[in-house]
C-alpha cells in the first residue's frame, strides 16, 4: 500500500472522528437547551476563541430574569462538554457585571460569554434583534467579494 493511500485513509478516519465528536458536542448543547427551555426562558452567550479556548454560556431564567440554572462549555476542542454550575442561581441576569464576575476568577472568555448572554437577554426583552458575528470563513470570503 502506497504512502499516499495510507495518508488518505488516515485523513478519512480523522474526519469521521471529528464528525462524531462534533455530533456528541452538539447533543450536549441540545440536551441542556431543551432542559432549560422546558423550565423557562433561555439566554445564550458566545465568545469565540480563535487560538485560546472559546466559551458558550446558557442561562435558564424565570419571567423576571432570575437565573434558575446555568451551564457552560469552554475549550478549544470538540472534547469539551457542558457543565452545570450553581454560582448564579437566584441572581438576576441584569445584575451580572464585570465587577461581580472578577471576584469569581473565571476565564476571560467565559466572562465575555456571560456578559454576551446578559446583553442578548436584554436585547430580546426590548424587542431588538441579535446580530450574529460572521465566522472566520465568512470574513475571508467577504474579502474576495469586494
Automatic annotation (TrEMBL):
This is Transcriptional regulator GutM. Keywords: Membrane, Transmembrane, Transmembrane helix. Pfam families: GutM. It comes from Anaerococcus degeneri. InterPro entries: Glucitol_operon_activator (IPR009693). The lineage of its organism: Bacteria, Bacillati, Bacillota, Tissierellia, Tissierellales. The chain crosses the membrane at residues 6-24.
Amino acid at each position: 500500500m502506497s504512502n499516499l493511500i495510507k495518508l488518505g485513509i488516515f485523513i478519512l478516519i480523522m474526519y469521521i472522528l471529528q464528525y462524531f465528536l462534533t455530533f456528541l458536542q452538539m447533543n450536549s448543547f441540545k440536551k441542556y437547551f431543551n432542559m432549560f427551555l422546558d423550565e423557562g426562558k433561555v439566554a445564550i452567550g458566545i465568545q469565540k476563541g480563535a487560538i485560546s479556548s472559546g466559551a458558550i454560556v446558557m442561562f435558564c431564567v424565570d419571567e423576571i430574569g432570575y437565573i434558575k440554572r446555568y451551564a457552560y462549555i469552554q475549550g478549544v476542542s470538540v472534547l469539551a462538554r457542558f457543565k452545570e454550575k450553581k454560582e448564579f442561581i437566584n441572581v438576576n441576569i441584569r445584575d451580572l457585571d464585570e465587577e461581580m464576575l472578577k471576584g469569581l476568577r473565571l476565564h476571560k472568555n467565559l466572562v465575555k460569554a456571560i456578559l454576551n448572554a446578559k446583553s442578548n437577554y436584554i436585547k430580546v426583552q426590548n424587542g431588538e434583534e441579535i446580530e450574529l458575528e460572521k465566522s472566520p470563513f465568512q470574513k475571508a470570503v467577504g474579502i474576495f467579494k469586494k
